[in-house]
């Protein structure tokens, strides 16, 4: 499974309140949530996020355990999040709703905002297309790839129960 997109680069400790501010937690439509994604840190995010890949520093998704944070990113058009490290609950929420999340400590230093990159989820290879730079990240285990391929855990469970 490979993903292609344009880099949007952010720093350390991007918390869930920055990803989707608390005042929007009453929204239930993920398309409406997406209109406010990253509003707490980047007011132009929704204009530039279609087909993007977020590359962030340490502790991405820290703070409260709201599932709305990865949902807002996914529905805004983010195809993947690569970070030096993730808050564990954000990481699992992202995978469970079908948003790929990859940990790689060294990629942030090599990539620039706007770079086009390829993410090979199965092999854990991150490629900066314009620079032909490849970085090894942790590949995702098969069960996570299965979840992502079905678009999230609920979709996978529905498919399995139909069999």
Description:
Helices cover 30% and strands 21% of the residues. The protein is an alpha/beta fold and 163 residues long. Strands 4-3-2-1-5-6-7 form a 7-stranded mixed beta sheet. α6 (142-149) packs across α7. The radius of gyration is 15 Å and the shape is globular. The two termini are 24 Å apart.
Quick tags:
163 residues, alpha/beta, Aconitase, domain 4, 7-stranded mixed sheet, 7 strands, 21% strand
What can be said about this structure in brief?
The chain has helices at 16-19, 30-34, 45-48, 68-76, 88-96, 142-149, 153-162, and strands at 2-9, 52-56, 78-83, 101-103, 116-120, 125-128, 133-136.
The main sheet orders its strands as 4-3-2-1-5-6-7
User: What is the percent of helical residues?
Assistant: 25-40%
Query: The CATH topology, please?
Result: Aconitase, domain 4
* Rg (CA only): 15 Å
CATH superfamily descriptor: Aconitase, domain 4
Level-2 CATH architecture:
Alpha-Beta Barrel
Form type:
globular
Unreliable residue runs: none
Summing up helix and strand content along with how strands pair, one would put the structural category as: alpha/beta
Please provide the ordered H/E string of secondary-structure elements: EHHHEHEHEEEEHH
Number of helices: 7
Under CATH at level 1, the class stands as Alpha Beta
Q: Largest sheet, if any?
A: 7 strands, mixed
Distance between the termini: 24 Å
State mean pLDDT (0 to 100 scale): 92
Which percent band covers the strand fraction? 15-25%
Number of spatially distinct domains: 1
């Amino acid at each position: 499974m490979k993903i292609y997109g344009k880099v949007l680069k952010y720093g350390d400790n991007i918390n869930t309140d920055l990803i989707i501010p608390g005042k929007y937690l009453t929204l239930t439509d993920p398309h409406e949530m997406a209109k406010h994604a990253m509003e707490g840190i980047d007011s132009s995010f929704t204009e530039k996020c279609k087909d993007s890949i977020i590359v962030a520093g340490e502790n991405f998704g820290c703070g409260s355990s709201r599932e709305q944070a990865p949902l807002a990113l996914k529905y805004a058009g983010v195809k993947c999040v690569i970070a030096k490290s993730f808050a564990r609950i954000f990481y699992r929420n992202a995978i469970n709703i079908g948003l790929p999340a990859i940990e790689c400590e060294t990629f942030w230093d090599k990539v620039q905002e706007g770079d086009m990159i390829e993410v090979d989820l199965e092999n854990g290879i991150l490629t900066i297309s314009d620079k032909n730079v490849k970085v090894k990240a942790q590949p995702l285990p098969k069960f996570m790839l299965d979840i992502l391929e079905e678009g999230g855990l609920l979709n996978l469970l529905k498919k399995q129960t139909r069999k």
